[in-house]
Amino acid sequence: MNEELLKAIVKLFAIVSKERITDAEKSNVRDFLAIHLSHDSIPIYMALFDRHIESSNADLVDFEHSDDETIEYVDDWANIMKLCKLINEGLTKQQKLVLLLKLIELMLQDGILSERQSNLIFYIGEVIKVSQQEVDLISKFLASQDIEDLDSSFFLVVDEGSVPHEFKSKHITRPKITGSIFVLRIPDADTYFVKYLGISALTLNGLNLRSRKTYVFPTGSTIRGSKMRPVFYSEVVSKFLFGGDTTQLSFVAKNISYKFKSGYEALHNINIAEEGGNLIGLMGASGSGKSTLLSVLNGSSPPSKGTVTVNGLDIYEKKDWLEGIIGFVPQDDFLIDDLTVYENLFFAAQLTFGHHTKEQSHDLVIKTLKSLGISEIKDLRVGSVLDKTISGGQRKRINIGLELLRKPTILFVDEPTSGLSSRDSVNIMDLLKELSLNGKMVFVVIHQPSSDIFKMFDSLIILDVGGYPVYYGNPEEAVVYFKTIVNMVNKDQGACIECGNVNSEQIFNILEAKVVNEYGRLTDRRKVPPIKWHGYFLENVTLPEVREKSDKLKSVQQIPAKLKQVSVFAMRDVMAKVKNFQYMLITFLEAPLLAFFLAYLVKYYVTIDDQKVYIFSENVNIPVYFFMAVIVSLFMGLTLSAEELIKDRKILKRESFLNLSRMSYLVSKIGILLVISAIQTLCFTLLANWILEINNMYFTTWLVLFSLSVFANVLGLIISSAFNSAVTVYILIPILIIPQLILSGVIINFDQFNYHISSDKHIPVVGDLMVSRWAYEALAVDQFVNNDYQKIFYKYDRESNLSNYKKNYYVPELDKQLGIVFNNISDSSDIEKVAHVERSLKILRYEIGRELKKFGENKYPEYVRLTRNDFDSATYHGGKEFLATLKLYYTKRATNWLNQRNEVSTRIVEQPNGEIKLETLRRLNENKRMKEMVENQISTVRIQVLDDRLMRKVYPIYSKPNSGKWINIQSKFYAPEKALFGQVISTYWVNVLVIWFMTIFSMIILYFDVLKKIVDRVGEFRENRMRKKEQKEE
Question: What pTM was computed for the model?
Answer without folding.
Answer: 0.80
